Amino acid sequence: MPFLRKILIFLIISLIDSAIRRRHFLNCYPSFRCYLFLFSLFYCCLNKDIWQNNGKFSSPKQQKSTFNHLNNQKIREHLFIYTSFLLKESLVVLFISHKNHWIHNGIFCSQQNLINKTKQNIKLISKKELISSLGICAMDLYVLTCNRNIKKQEKNNNKYFVGLNEPNWLGWRKHTNIEITTQKTDKQQRSLVLCISRVFAFERWQLLITALEMYRLLNVNLVVAHIQSAITSVYNLLKLYEREGILSVRPGIRFPHSKNMQWDPNAETEFNGQILLAHECFYEFRESTEFIGLIDWDDLLLPSKNFVDLPSVFKEALIKYPNTAYFLVNKLEAKFEEKSQNPRLFNLRNLMEEGIMMSHIYNDEKMVVRPKN
Question: Do 70 and 61 contact (CB within 8 A), yes or no?
C-alpha cells in the first residue's frame, strides 16, 4: 500500500504539472471545489499514516503508580507518568521520557473543579525540569511543577490532568488531557527519614539487621526501603520491622514493556530507577521532615563520638550553616578480614579487634537533604 500511494502521488503531481504547462489548469479557476479536491487528494495520500497513527494513547493496568505511554507507529514516543504529589501550593508530577522527544514539549497541568457545573479544565502555570544524570540511558527523569489555583472550599473537589501537545506535520497541535491520581504527602512530624535505594534479590539479612538496629539506637524516625525482590525469610524479616514502625517497605518500580518499543524502559533508566525513587521519597516527606537521607543499604550513617544520635548531628551542622540545602556525608570504606580459613580457629573477639580493615575517607556524595530550606 505505501508503494501504491507513492505512485498515486507521482501521477497527481504529473497531471497538475501537465495541466499548468498546457494552461488547462486555468479551467479550475472558476470552481473553488476543483482546487479543494486536488488539495484534499494530495494531502490525504501523503499523510494517511499520520492521521491514522498519530495520538493513539493507551494506559496499562493501574498498579501502585499510574503508568501512561503514548505510542506512534512511525515515530515511537513513550512517556511514563510515575507518580504525583499534592503539596500545599503546588502539584508535582514525576515522569520519565526521552530527552530529545517532542511529546513532552509544552507539557502542562490543568485542574477541574467538580463543583463547577461547566467542568472546564483550568490550565495551571507549569514548569518542567530535567534532572541531570550520566546521560548514557535512553530515558531521563523530569519533574513537572504546577502552581495550584485552589480555594479553601474547593480543597478536596478537584481533578488534575497532565496535558500533552501532539503536533502534526503542519505544526497544528492537538491537546490530550490525561487524568492523574495524586498522592498526599506525609503529615507526621519527624526529625530524620532515610530513603534507601531499591534492591534486587535481597538476601543479606546480616546487613539488614545491623543497619536497622543501629538506626533504632541512633533515633532515626523512619527508614523507607524499595524492595524489587527478596528471599522469603528476609522479606518476612522486613515485614516484622515494618510492624514495629521503624521501616516502611515499598514495592520496586517496574515500567510496562511492549514489543513495539525500541528498548526496555526498565533497562534504560539511570541507576535502575534509583534517582526516580529518591525524588518520590523526597516529595512524600518534604513537608513534614527536617532531614531526609538518600543512601544505600551498605552505607551505614554513624555520628562522631561527640553526638548521641543522628538528628543532633545535622541540627548542630545547621547552626553553623543555616542556609544550606543539603549535606554531603564523607564515606569511610571498611570491611572484615578473617585471616584464618579454618572454622575451628574463628574468634569473634579477634575479628572485632583486629579484623576490621579501613581505607581512606572520601566523599561519595551520599546526601542528607534539608527539604524546608
Answer: no
The residue type of 184 is: K
Which residue is associated with the grid cell 503542519?
170
Length of the chain: 373
- Please state, as a whole number, how many other Cβ atoms lie within 10 Å of the Cβ of residue 315: 15
Question: How many other C-beta atoms are found inside a 10 Å radius of the C-beta of residue 179?
Answer: 13
Beta bridge partners of 123: 110
Q: Give the model's pLDDT for residue 38.
A: 57
Amino acid (one-letter) located at 40? S
What are the start-end ranges of the H helices in 104-159?
Answer: none
Q: With beta carbons less than 8 A apart as the criterion, state whether 318 and 325 touch.
A: no
Classify 233 as helix, strand or coil.
helix
Helix, coil or strand: residue 57: strand
> Contact 326/365 with Cβ under 8 angstroms?
no
Architecture of domain 56-184: Sandwich (2.60)
What interhelical angle do 2-21 and 32-46 show, nearest 10? 150
Tell me how crowded residue 274 is: count the other CB atoms within 10 A of its CB: 19
Q: Is residue 109 a contact partner of residue 101, using CB atoms and an 8 Å limit?
A: no
pTM of the model: 0.71
Residue written as grid cell 524546608: 372
Summarize pLDDT for 207-218 with one digit per residue, the tens: 899 899 999 999
Tally Cβ neighbours within 10 Å of residue 253: 24
Sheet arrangement for strand 108-113: 122-123, 108-113, 158-167, 173-180
How many Å apart are CA 304 and CA 267, to the nearest integer? 39
Pairwise CA distance, residues 222 & 254, whole Å: 24
Q: Are 159 and 112 in contact (CB under 8 A)?
A: yes
β-bridge partners, 160: 111, 180
pLDDT tens digits for range 79-126: 889 999 999 889 999 998 887 766 667 888 988 887 765 667 888 999
Which run of H or of E encompasses 329? strand 326-336
Q: In whole angstroms, what is the distance from residue 75 CA to residue 259 CA?
A: 15
The alpha helices in the chain, defined as continuous H runs, are 2-21, 32-46, 48-53, 205-217, 232-244, 274-285, 310-320, 348-354
Domain limits of the chain? 2-42, 56-184, 190-369
